[in-house]
Design a protein that fits this description.
Helix content is about 25%, strand content about 40%. It contains 3 helices and 8 strands.
């Protein structure tokens, strides 16, 4: 499972002109399932998100998690994280799980996150989305769970 985690002041997702998910301070998480991914990877992914210490403490060190600061999670499916451009200039997306297993794993991540954290918003799997954010820092962390 591939993720891109961005610490944000605020973020939202718009589909067909309507806001479908939004958070204030927290993490915008782009997530891509890979063909061999299982529920175990989804569980480890959510565990890592909730424990990732990328918010500042009183001393200004990244020492607090999204749970510690009471922040939100905005989780958005993003199959293009699996893009491969090694063979040319047009990306190949064969490294991403297909639509059916990809959606199942995305929904598993959402379910697990919602069971463990009170503030979880989401995009719409497979939809054309506009994602807006104010990156705080900026802090952007690539995350890969094998």
């Amino acid at each position: 499972m591939i993720g891109l985690v961005q610490r944000v002041i605020r973020a939202n997702v718009v589909v067909e002109g309507a806001v479908v998910g939004e958070i204030g301070r927290g993490l915008l998480v782009l997530v891509c399932a890979e063909p061999a991914d299982t529920d175990a990877q989804a569980t480890r992914f959510v565990d890592k998100l909730l424990k990732l210490r990328i918010f500042s403490d009183e001393a200004g060190k990244m020492n607090r998690s999204v749970v510690d600061v009471g922040g939100g999670l905005l989780i958005v499916s993003q199959f293009t994280l699996a893009a491969d451009v090694s063979g040319g200039n047009r990306p190949s997306f064969t490294g991403a799980a297909g639509p059916v297993p990809g959606q199942r794993l995305y929904e598993t991540v959402l379910t697990l996150a919602r069971q463990r954290h009170p503030q979880v918003a989401a995009g719409v799997f497979g939809a054309h989305m506009q994602v807006s954010l104010v990156n705080d820092g900026p802090v952007t962390i690539p995350l890969r769970i094998n």
